[in-house]
From TrEMBL:
<dbReference type="InterPro" id="IPR003769">
    <property type="entry name" value="ClpS_core"/>
</dbReference>
<dbReference type="InterPro" id="IPR014719">
    <property type="entry name" value="Ribosomal_bL12_C/ClpS-like"/>
</dbReference>
<dbReference type="GO" id="GO:0006508">
    <property type="term" value="P:proteolysis"/>
</dbReference>
<dbReference type="GO" id="GO:0030163">
    <property type="term" value="P:protein catabolic process"/>
</dbReference>
<comment type="function">
    <text>Involved in the modulation of the specificity of the ClpAP-mediated ATP-dependent protein degradation.</text>
</comment>
<dbReference type="GO" id="GO:0008233">
    <property type="term" value="F:peptidase activity"/>
</dbReference>
<comment type="subunit">
    <text>Binds to the N-terminal domain of the chaperone ClpA.</text>
</comment>
<keyword id="KW-0378">Hydrolase</keyword>
<dbReference type="InterPro" id="IPR022935">
    <property type="entry name" value="ClpS"/>
</dbReference>
<feature type="region of interest" description="Disordered">
    <location>
        <begin position="1"/>
        <end position="21"/>
    </location>
</feature>
<comment type="similarity">
    <text>Belongs to the ClpS family.</text>
</comment>
<dbReference type="Pfam" id="PF02617">
    <property type="entry name" value="ClpS"/>
</dbReference>
<feature type="domain" description="Adaptor protein ClpS core">
    <location>
        <begin position="27"/>
        <end position="104"/>
    </location>
</feature>
<feature type="compositionally biased region" description="Basic and acidic residues">
    <location>
        <begin position="9"/>
        <end position="21"/>
    </location>
</feature>
<keyword id="KW-0645">Protease</keyword>
<protein>
    <recommendedName>
        <fullName>ATP-dependent Clp protease adapter protein ClpS</fullName>
    </recommendedName>
</protein>
Length: 114
């Protein structure tokens, strides 16, 4: 038998036929940006942050702000890790720049949560 391959035979190495398969693509893991309640940051400031950094409408931002106020924290949005970390850092810096103790953090989403 010849060492040359027939183009129709595929790639043979050591007697095995190797086929190229397309890579399996998976969605990147998602993270929630969480805003934490404090006793000092004005509610209107929180609403403005949600509108400015998360693109929320006034109504949606007000609902999230009320959840933060009554439940201690609220979900601002769900993003890939890099975007979630960036948004949380931007909000934290903006809050500090405006002399407010408000904090954002991120946490992984549960499977199937979007």
């Amino acid at each position: 038998m010849s060492d040359q391959q027939n183009p129709d035979d595929g790639d043979r190495r050591g007697g095995l036929l190797l086929e190229e398969r397309p890579p399996k693509l998976a969605k990147p893991p998602l993270y929630r940006v969480i805003m934490l309640n404090d006793d000092f940051t004005p509610m209107e400031f929180v609403v403005e942050l949600l509108e400015q950094f998360f693109g929320k409408t006034r109504e949606s931002a007000t609902q999230i702000m009320l959840a933060i106020h009554t439940q201690g924290k609220g979900v601002c949005g769900i993003y890939t890790r890099d975007i979630a970390e960036t948004k949380a850092a931007l909000v934290n810096q903006y809050s500090r720049d405006n002399q407010h103790p408000l904090l954002c953090d991120i946490e992984p989403c549960q499977d199937g949560e979007e």
